[in-house]
Specification:
- This protein has 269 residues and is an alpha+beta fold.
- It is 23% helix and 32% strand.
- It contains 6 helices and 11 strands.
- The strands form 2 sheets. Strands 1-6-5-4-3-7-8-11 form an 8-stranded antiparallel barrel, surrounded by 5 helices.
- Strand 9 and strand 10 form a beta hairpin.
- The protein is globular.
- The mean pLDDT is 88.
Length: 269
């Protein structure tokens, strides 16, 4: 999936309800082949989020801008030979637009270690997979990064369980567990992060519960009837939680600092 545009509705639930929800949706969607069979449902997801020295993207998400974006580099394990993904995620009113391009980890390392604060990033298709077909995504990604002088800032990791449609790639349900924010060492390398701190829930008054699950319903144009029934059956209440901003906020509280950071150095533990 290189580009998608869809609606995403988020809910925070506890594990017993997540099990019941999974049983309900299994009648309509199939489990992803990537879910795995470990003790924690789903597969690991790690994202390195980029932001400006003034936390431009964080401020957008934290204050609830209807039109906002995020830049992140996503990967799924610690194997240096496995690919990573440049992702640009934008929210336009209630629609979520995401572009992604596959890139080697060596390509990520060279770009992150040679960009800001010394000099701007250079979009180079040398390390992109599928060649110039995704050069447009890389150009946009590094163009946005240069505009705000973004740098790698924080890891957000979790386990994601996926249920998907065989006929519609935009129709899916995901459940995220074991969500943590962790420090990034600015080395340029993508590493498996050490467990850091749990995010704080909006309105950011309490930490995310240990058995908490972020449920996301994703669809194009309008939800199917069974999704509406799911929300009603389980009395689900939408929660506008952004994992990135919630982890940044939690890190600030963890360090006994002001909840709203003003510069990148404020995130150093």
């Amino acid at each position: 999936m290189a580009h998608s545009a869809r609606y995403e509705l988020k809910y925070v639930i506890r594990e017993p309800r997540a099990v019941a929800v999974a049983d309900f949706i299994s009648s309509y969607l199939r489990p992803s082949v990537h879910n795995g069979s470990g003790p924690i449902p789903g597969h690991p997801v790690i994202s390195l989020y980029l932001d400006s020295p003034g936390f431009f993207f964080f401020q957008q998400a934290f204050t609830g801008h209807k039109n906002r974006m995020k830049l992140r580099i996503r990967f799924y394990d610690g194997d240096w030979e496995h690919l990573a993904f440049l992702e640009t995620k934008r929210r336009v009113n209630d629609v979520i637009c995401k572009d992604r391009a596959m890139i080697s980890r060596e390509g990520v390392r060279q770009i992150l270690s040679q960009g800001w604060p010394m000099r701007p990033y250079v979009s180079d298709c040398t390390y992109l997979k599928h060649g110039r077909r995704r050069q447009d995504v890389a150009d946009d990604f590094w163009g946005f990064a240069n505009t705000i002088q973004a740098r790698g800032l924080i890891y957000v990791s979790y386990y994601r369980e996926i249920f998907e449609s065989a006929a519609d790639e935009e129709l899916r349900v995901t459940m995220d567990r074991r969500i943590y924010g962790s420090r990034y060492d600015h080395s340029g390398r993508l590493e498996l992060p050490k467990r850091g701190w749990r995010p704080y829930l909006p309105p950011y008054l309490a930490p995310f519960p240990k058995d908490g699950v972020i449920l996301e319903l994703k669809f194009d144009e309008r939800p199917p009837r069974w999704m509406v029934d799911l929300v009603r059956t389980f009395n689900l209440q939408q929660t506008p939680v952004c994992k990135y901003s919630a982890c940044v906020f939690a890190q600030r509280l963890h360090c006994g600092q002001s909840p709203l950071p003003e510069r990148e150095e404020d995130l150093v533990l």
